[in-house]
């Protein structure tokens, strides 16, 4: 019998208007999106294969090259969040059975190790507690021992609040015939990073942190060494959607005269990303780095004045975009964060992965990187310290 009647009624919630409250997004991301970027994302969409869209994608590519400080032709944005870039990097440059080395000092290394394991790589790890960093000597020893084709490091470890030193590691990876993959999702635009000068072979970031675009797009760039490896593989990457052979054509990077349909890119997301990259270009990277550092120092001082302890002791290893506070003795961090959300409409968060229960995180990124916001965050924390109950223990 053919189906003839609708038996599932329209859900009541769908007959109510959308409700999304205003929040101060002072956690590790997403961060608040400036009106200019929101407006760009709200423009009428055009087709993903229209010539004007190609122009916009070309602009995005140039904007990413500036933000990453690279001349790499193989530069594009993923149609997806930071995780899409993580998977794209690993899936395309590693073949099943090949060896990968992952530095784990927080959640992001854990994630990449799992991604590599799922696609059949032989995963080796070097592991430290959240907030600790790896010396170049330790990295070189592991490179020599495991002979990986890819080494992964998180520049801005947002779960621990660490800005990992990068100098010299790219050279070690070259010496050991390995690609150097760096995650800058939480640090791009907030802390200095120079893809070409630091010999980073693959670099990615996200749209929703210091770039202040909505979540859902993720810039990524591959240099010649990485292209050499990924376009001379014996097996096809496990993901069709993330296959760089197709993506490089979609972004006009493969030298072919025509761009073919591969998937429908997030047109509004690309409009917004273009605008956020334009804001960074207008401001200038150095100024952006400086503003983040200066505001972070102001925030750190304010936190210490409240009697709070910073999780990363060495100032020069602290991530300017995401500050980690050691949980104050006797307080329940969940209660404090809930209090701040309820009374200040402000998001701050706890730890993530291995740093859960160790830290509370405050992020002031890009558009949010302003003194009055730091004052508001400090005021909210002071209020929570006064009003949340302190255990006697
Ligand atoms: N890497 C780092 C350092 C991050 O902070 C995040 C997001 N918190 C990611 C990767 C993953 O990005 P997304 O949530 O956009 O997938």
Automatic annotation (TrEMBL):
Pfam family, one: Aminotran_5
GO BP terms in the entry: glycine biosynthetic process, by transamination of glyoxylate
PANTHER family named among the record's database cross-references: ALANINE--GLYOXYLATE AMINOTRANSFERASE, AMINOTRANSFERASE CLASS V
Catalysis performed (reactions): glyoxylate + L-alanine = glycine + pyruvate; L-serine + pyruvate = 3-hydroxypyruvate + L-alanine
Residue positions where N6-(pyridoxal phosphate)lysine is found in the record: 209
Cofactor(s) it depends on: pyridoxal 5'-phosphate
Binding site for substrate: 361
Entry's EC annotation: 2.6.1.44, 2.6.1.51
Keyword terms: Aminotransferase, Pyridoxal phosphate, Transferase
Name the record gives this protein: Alanine--glyoxylate aminotransferase
Subunit comment: Homodimer.
Catalytic EC class: transferase
Segments forming domain Aminotransferase class V: 24-370
Organism the protein comes from: Alosa alosa (allis shad)
MF-aspect GO terms: alanine-glyoxylate transaminase activity; L-serine-pyruvate transaminase activity
GO cellular component, one term: peroxisome
Protein family (similarity comment): Belongs to the class-V pyridoxal-phosphate-dependent aminotransferase family.
Highest taxon listed in the record's lineage: Eukaryota
């Amino acid at each position: 019998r053919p189906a003839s009647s609708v038996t599932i009624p329209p859900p009541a919630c769908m007959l109510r208007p959308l409700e999304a409250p205003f929040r101060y997004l002072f956690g590790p991301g997403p961060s608040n999106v400036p009106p200019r970027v929101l407006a760009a994302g709200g423009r009428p969409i055009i087709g993903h294969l229209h010539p004007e869209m190609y122009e916009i994608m070309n602009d995005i590519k140039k904007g990413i090259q500036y933000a990453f400080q690279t001349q790499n032709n193989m530069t594009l944005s993923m149609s997806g969040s930071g995780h899409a870039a993580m998977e794209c990097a690993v899936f395309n440059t590693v073949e099943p059975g090949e060896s990968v080395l992952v530095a784990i000092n927080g959640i992001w290394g854990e994630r990449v190790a799992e991604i590599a394991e799922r696609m059949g790589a032989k995963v080796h790890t070097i592991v430290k507690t959240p907030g600790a960093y790896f010396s170049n000597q330790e990295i070189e020893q592991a490179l020599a021992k495991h002979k990986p084709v890819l080494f992964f490091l998180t520049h801005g470890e947002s779960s621990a609040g660490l800005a990992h030193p990068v100098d010299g590691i790219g050279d070690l990876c070259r010496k050991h015939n390995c690609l150097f993959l760096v995650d800058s999702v939480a640090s791009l635009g907030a802390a200095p990073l120079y893809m070409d000068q630091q010999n980073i072979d693959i670099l990615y970031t996200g749209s929703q942190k210091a770039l202040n675009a909505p979540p859902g797009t993720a810039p990524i760039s591959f240099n010649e060494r990485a292209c050499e490896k990924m376009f001379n593989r014996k097996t096809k990457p496990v993901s069709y959607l993330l296959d760089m052979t197709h993506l490089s054509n979609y972004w006009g990077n493969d030298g072919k005269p025509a761009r073919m349909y591969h998937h429908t890119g997030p047109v509004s997301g690309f409009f917004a990303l273009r605008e956020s990259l334009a804001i960074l270009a207008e401001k200038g990277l150095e100024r952006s780095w400086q503003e983040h550092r200066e505001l972070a120092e102001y925030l750190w001082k304010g936190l210490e004045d409240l009697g709070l302890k910073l999780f990363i002791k060495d100032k020069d290893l602290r991530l300017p975009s995401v500050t980690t506070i050691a949980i104050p003795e006797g307080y329940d961090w969940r209660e404090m964060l809930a209090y701040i959300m309820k009374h200040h409409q402000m998001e701050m968060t706890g730890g993530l992965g291995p740093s859960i229960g160790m830290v509370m995180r405050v992020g002031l990124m890009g558009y949010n990187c302003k003194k009055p916001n730091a004052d508001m965050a400090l005021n909210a924390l002071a209020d929570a310290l006064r009003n949340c109950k302190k255990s006697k223990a």
